[in-house]
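just leaving the lab so this will be short. what follows is a protein written twice so to speak, once as letters and once as structure tokens for the fold. can you read through it and tell me how you think this chain folds. thanks a lot i owe you, the record is right below.

___
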Amino acid sequence: MADISSLGIGSGIDVNSLVTDILEAERKPTQTRLDLKEAEFQAQLSSYGTLKGALSAFQTTTSSLRFPSSLLQVNASSTDDDAFSMTTVSNAKESAFTFEVSTLAKANSVSSATFANISDTIGTGTLTFNFGTTSYNAGVYDTFTKDAERAGSDVVITDGSLEGIRDAVNTAKIGVTASIINVGSDGFKLLFTSDKLGVNNSMEITVADDLTDNVDMSGLSQLAYNIADTENPAVNMAETTQGQDATVKFNGLTVTRESNTINDLVAGVIFTLKLPSASGAADVSLTRDSSEMGNLVDTFITGYNDLVDTLNTLTTFVPEGDSGALLGDAATRGVVNQLRAALNEAIPNIGGDYRNLSSVGITTDRDGKLVKDETKFDAAVKAAPNAVARLFSVGGEASGTNLTYVASTSRTQSGIFGIDISQPATRAVYTATANSTLVVDATNKDFTVKINGTTSSTISLTEATYADGDALAAEVQALINADSGLKNAGASVAVIYNVDRLEITSNKYGKESTLEIVAGSADLGFAEGTTEDGKDLAGTINGVSAVGDGRFLTGTGNADGLLLEYTGSAGGAVGGVTFSRGYADKLFNLMSEFLKSTSSISGKTDGIQSSIKDIGEQRVALEARILTIEARMRKQFGAMDALVATLRSTGDFLTQQLENLPKIGG
């Protein structure tokens, strides 16, 4: 077969151009159809992307209104901003009171003697830090009372320089910060500061010096600060700051705290103390910020209207122009219909006069957009702020003593749910046998306890003759709760003396609450005591069995995900919970449905992407067919060209022969 460059030489026909034109005519109808279809699919895909972006943006807007705390914001104001500041959180309530800062909490600090260089050697050995309360007589360090619930901490010193001691204490992370202070021309001092503020977090430092004497002013004993040590008392460091509690007056009542941040005095209010009050008690007001609810609702309306604008643009019909790419699309029409239905439905189970948007002055205009009547809305917020908040947010309200609504999930349905308790939550209780003595000595002081699955170290009671059973119980409780392993596991107990025996109760509720005396003396009743493990809360919500965990109950069925806490000890019908989903929550969840991978929108985009891929495959098939046609045509034109060349050669030969014939009459 003639190659492409020589094709047509025999016939004199421009076969290459002829083939190209024929192939282009063959390709163009199919290619044009595929181009138009792909452009249509790409426009739809882009429009679905725009729609998803608008739905996601509106979901973000609704999220800030889903919780009552966002809508029912309370602001705190004071006549003295210099002495203290306040921050309010979700459970703050409107109120008024007086508040005065008397003293700030301070951390206990002690300093060493002066050293010429930070590399100077003090000594090696072990520093033991205890924490508790320091007492003073005429301003002089007099006694120290150790905190029984806070274990002491040992720091082994192998590098005896100021730097080495500082680094060892800080690395140990025992609740003390060590610093080296340049005091000027005299040199450097080592400063120990308790990490916790307050009177009860003062320090006592005892020394086990690698030298023989633990109290003199040589070696590591230079850092001793332990007047309460009856065997080796030494006050070789100087107290630079006494531990001090913060003292405030709340409505004239004196209150003390170990910190300058107080979050347990007024519900929902965090006080940060800055200075002692210079002008006496300040007036404090906690007032509802109704403007914040209005601002959030305005944001909700704007977000919804932006979504409506996007939907209108994507579905608009233009008689003589470009209509929206999603005009007539079933998935988009479904979004519009479900949005309208969600806004038109009243919110059940919230009671009162405010159960739909129109009741608080929010209506739709002819374009489907929301419009707010400011006067009507403000009047509703002023009259019933909680009801208006529930109109938008998700939440529950419990009725009944000791019953609290905690949380819900997207699966929880609106409703009024009755709560019936068949088994109140209990804690593990270990009851010792009757103890024969209140005298604790080396023969009976040690015991080991296992609480909620965590085993303590060996606990050693203080050797003493206890005044009564209550004093012994207090000692047992303090030492158990001071055990570091139990503390790290969050395990603690309460101990009482019941008639003639110790009774230990885990502070954890539920089936994971367990207690066991692993080892202990029969003298104290620890050899053959009995244990009753804790039990989870059990009961029903609207007659359907719920799942108990400690003092919490989680619903199933219509109440799926509804989480309640019951702290009572009585069983039976204990109250109920009214649960509702406001507009913001309903629309947030609706947006989630629209955006999930199994939604009709996702199905549409998946289908379009599949169609675009199919168009690509059709293009490949088209090109393969064109190549086949081209090969066939070139083969046919090549044969024709050869035939024409042969005929032309024969013609030329005949012409030559005819010209050589004798001419008649010549």
Observations:
- The radius of gyration is 43 Å.
- The first strand starts at residue 74 and ends at 78.
- The chain has five domains: 1-67+307-392+589-659, 74-105+246-288, 109-241, 397-425+537-581, 427-532.
- DSSP finds eleven helices and 37 strands in the chain.
